[in-house]
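[Structure tokenization] protein backbone as discrete codes
[Encoding] learned vocabulary of local backbone shapes
[Protein] chain in single-letter code, fold in tokens
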Amino acid sequence: QLQVVESGGGLVQAGGSLRLSCAANGFNLDFYAIGWFRQAPGKEREPVSCITITGDTTNYADSVKGRFTGSRDNAKDTVYLQMDSLKPEDTAVYYCATKSGSGYVCSPSAGVFHSWGQGTQVTVSS
């Protein structure tokens, strides 16, 4: 079963930074657009960011624009989400997933993503 693995979460003070990583378990991420989603307690999962196979990124959550940056290192077969100026409202479990269909196009719809990871917890204290 194809699966991705997230890492890099943790506890950080407001204003701090974290870098999340998304790696593949048994397959190559190079062929997929990768989406980042998050789910806070009591809230629905929301799209955060997406990166195409050519490195074009889109931040879907208005609250993260200017603070979160997606990137990928194909040599390491890893996708990253750099999160700066973190706020308590960024507290959530963050997931990455591979997108079905064209890797040149991103989407905010969770329904077109598969191979979800188990998530990594990000907690931002005030």
